[in-house]
Amino acid sequence: MSSQALRLFRRLGGSSPGRWLYSKLICRRAPYFASIAPRVEALAPGRCVVRIRDRRAVRNHIGTVHAIALCNMAELAGGLATDATIPGSARWIPKGMTVRYLAKARGEMTATAKVAAIADASSAQDLHARVEVRDEGGTLVFDADIAMWVSPRKET
Q1: Which terminus has fewer CB within 10 Å in the chain: N or C?
Q2: Inter-residue contact 67 to 60 (CB < 8 Å)
């Protein structure tokens, strides 16, 4: 069974207005992500693509996209990719994130998260979401390795 987030994206993600609505709904569910005004462009098992526009609200004092805005973007993309990848019998939570700032982040940013399938959903384990953020020219400006703790969902 696929995740609720993936099912909703499959329903809404086929058009630009649908992706806009989907992104708004995700931010309503997790309000903190609204601070970066993300746009979820693609979501499938093992992969998620998120974009943010260059606007004053995400810039730092030197006019580049702020480091924490990039971290938020990476966590959103990594979390959605994880959610779309693991079976419905499992749950996840971020456990830690290692990031590298590789170049000045200017302009629109695109984060691509990739997550490998898990072999055994019946045991708790770390799953890594690897995220790359590129600028409009394709330059890699940031990357992250997010350790996700995946465990069997508790029966209620």
Answers
A1: C
A2: yes
